[in-house]
Amino acid sequence: MQKLYTGRYVNLQALAQEINSILLQEGWESTVQPMMIGNPQYQDYMIRGLKKGHFHHAEELIVRVTGSPSEFRIIIEEEHIGPLGRELINRRLLKQIEKEINDGLFDLPMQQPTMQPINQQITPTVPSQQPIAPQAPQQIRCPQCGYLNPPGAKFCINCGARLA
């Protein structure tokens, strides 16, 4: 099963971490593995979930979050998934992630070029006053790893931690 998302600019690392945390909350053994890709614009994360049941029966779930921040896929591969595992996938995991994506929980600020006029002088209205320079928005320092993130970021670009 897979779903394509477009039209948003999403922090894929934070999205993968959220999927992992949902699996952990539901009692699965789960890890996130970033896959190495040569293209820096393309990201690929694999979340492996394993839930051991009775009589050595194990359910295995692989969720891949792959693509670019503006166009990505969530791909779910399952093996030996029973009714409870399928319920988790359909109701808890997919519906919650869909809602959080639509609510903008993982949105990154759009990187838009700013147009700066060249050699433009600002003349003060009163000769004795200096022109006031516009204030640049402050970068947000990640409380977990210390990385400086762009203004308006909700998650750290470096480690995926939620920013205040």
TrEMBL record:
Gene3D superfamilies listed in its UniProt record: 4.10.1060.50
Residues annotated as domain Zinc-ribbon: 142-163
Superkingdom of this protein's organism: Archaea
InterPro entries: Ribosomal_eL40_sf, Zinc_ribbon_dom
Pfam families noted in UniProt: Zn_Ribbon_1
UniProt protein name: Zinc-ribbon domain-containing protein
Species in which this protein is naturally found: Acidianus hospitalis (strain W1)
